[in-house]
TrEMBL record:
Species per Swiss-Prot/TrEMBL record: Niallia taxi
Domain Penicillin-binding protein transpeptidase, chain residue ranges per copy: 347-668
Gene3D superfamilies recorded: DD-peptidase/beta-lactamase superfamily (3.40.710.10), Penicillin-binding protein 2a (Domain 2) (3.90.1310.10), Penicillin-binding protein, N-terminal non-catalytic domain, head sub-domain (1.10.10.1230)
EC class: hydrolase
Cellular component terms per the entry's GO annotation: plasma membrane
SUPFAM superfamilies: beta-lactamase/transpeptidase-like, Penicillin binding protein dimerisation domain
Name the UniProt record assigns to this protein: serine-type D-Ala-D-Ala carboxypeptidase
One Pfam family matching this protein: Transpeptidase
Sequence ranges assigned to domain Penicillin-binding protein dimerisation in this UniProt record: 58-300
InterPro entries per UniProt: Beta-lactam/transpept (IPR050515), Beta-lactam/transpept-like (IPR012338), PBP_dimer (IPR005311), PBP_dimer_sf (IPR036138), PCN-bd_Tpept (IPR001460)
Membrane topology designation: Single-pass membrane protein
Amino acid sequence: MGNKKKKRTLPIRLNLIFFAVFLLFSALILRLGFVQIVYGDEYKRKLERTEDVTVDTSVPRGKIYDSTGKVIVDNSAKNAITYTNTGVKSDEMLKTAETLAKYITKDTKKVTERDKQDYWIMKHPDEAEALVTDKEKTALAEKYTDSDEYNSEVYKLQLDRITEDELKSISKDDLEVLAIYREFASGYKMTPHIVKNNDVTDKEMAVVSENLTSLKGVDTTTDWDRSYAFGNTLRSVLGSVSSSEEGLPAESLSYYLSKGYSRNDRVGKSYLELEYEDVLKGQKEKVRTQTDSDGKETTEVITEGKRGNDLVLAIDMELQQKVEDIIEKQLKAAKQMSGTKFLDRAYVVLMNPNTGDVLTMAGKRLVTQNGKTEVQDDALGNLTTSYNVGSVVKGATVLTGYKYGAISPGTVINDTPVMIGDTRKKSWTDMGPINDLTALMRSSNVYMFQTVMKIAGAHYVYGQPLSVDAEDFTKMRNAYAQYGLGIRTGIDLPNEQTGFKGTETNVPGKLLDIAIGQYDTYTNMQLAQYISTIANGGNRMEPHIVKEIRSPVSEEGELGAIVDSIEPKVLNTVDAKSEWIERVQTGFKMVAQSPKGTAYTYLSGKSYSPSAKTGTAEAFYDGPQKSNYKTLQEVMNLSLVSYAPSDNPEVAMAVLVPWAYNGSVDNKANLKIGEQVLDAYFDLKKERQKDEK
């Protein structure tokens, strides 16, 4: 009986085992079928998958030319080695850095103490782990439940406990590896980052190129630097470009990222380079790299790169250099002649009054450092600094008087001192009865005082108080603004200043000062726009540095097709009759060409028949030495506005020499500079006409 029971039990167990195996196999078959049907394609794609990476490569910026086709700003090519982080781990990155270090030399000056500590920990993981005891780790784990916080605190302890001797174990070769790794790690994912672009030898380029298969993420390319054919001439206006290390400016990061820039892209940082960034930046090259399951890489150019479009400026660099030389020589001579300690700068703008083309924008500044004086470019001072400019504004005062009926062409006013309360105000000499033309020619202050009092409707009695209000100041300022005084000119450069408006609008004498340019301040660019408005008959033209935008071409020095042309833009037409403007033009011509004109000594007898208005403003010094004095220092600002020829103006000029002298000899720097600049313009024109013939 016992044996029979055993025989029956055995088949039952076997059957159970077979049944279980059957169920397992059935489940496996079902699972395999399910995987093949539902996930089969996905797993197949994973098996055959390719890593697909698209990288944008930066291109050189557009060039900048002058109005005659000369290259001002170019790109100077140089060898470069880059690294693109495709998401590899730090240990793989370090291996690549070690390999690259065999082929290139790398400056280690930027390696910091922290870099060395991080590197030591990477190279000595076991020793680093032992720097923190198990007890300390347990305590930290209890305090910091978040794993990232815990790991960070452990890492801080490790950094603190690395000794100087341990860091000294890092060899010179290790430092080069570290310097390369540092560049690798500082780059942004999927963006080429410059590893080395200074002094990369042809041998380094060749060796790295030959070994790219063992240098994942590394590539050789051509980088560039901005080069300047005319040295420092106009450099402040041209602006600057960020380096590959700087990348996008922090204050504009979001803006540029939203426009598709990469974080380490180079962009214009100031003035023309910044103002025309969208034009100069170019189109990046897009390259796609595919890596199959066997590790084989193939690259494909999706979009060809194209350097940025070129700018053609209205500025004539030959003329610009001549003007800068004149300013520098006359500035030094004027300082020596007057012996003034304040004179340190002078400005000149030449503009086509009919189009707004800025032909020259020059400025120079004397800077003394360590007992040595050098001359620095300050062309930007024409629009970023403002001063009391004096009598050059009297043309606008007369035209405003015509507008409000205070005077009319030919009105005679007796030039004798005026007395407002106990304040006496006069011209540089008593002129007696004079009309509007003589007032401009001889630069009468009193004529302007009487005119502005009539504009304000004030009842003037010698020695008695005068009643004016804020609206009278506003009326004068609004009238001046039609000519460009006290408002932005609209020039295509950032950071233009409008000048300062005096706030004492209840002081009658200040209203009179406005009429002769000795209260509000103006920039030299505003003076250029003002005289251009009078020269062309009443149109306030928008000044512009850039004349054309052209497409890039491969031929050296050749200009491409015009993409955009900056057309002349009339900002406003002044509210004045043509005969009024012609009357002021006649007065300005007398300033330059009549024997009693204030510019006659310097501008008479010129073949180009100039018109002009001079200015001398009593002002207070507000320059870099101001803090050395407890009281305000009185100075004289000199100015000159002019255009030529008088009958058909082709060039307008503004000259401004702040703090020209103080209680010393009038050096006439404004007139000397102005005469020589106009001579240079018309002499150069004659030379070119001869060459063309």
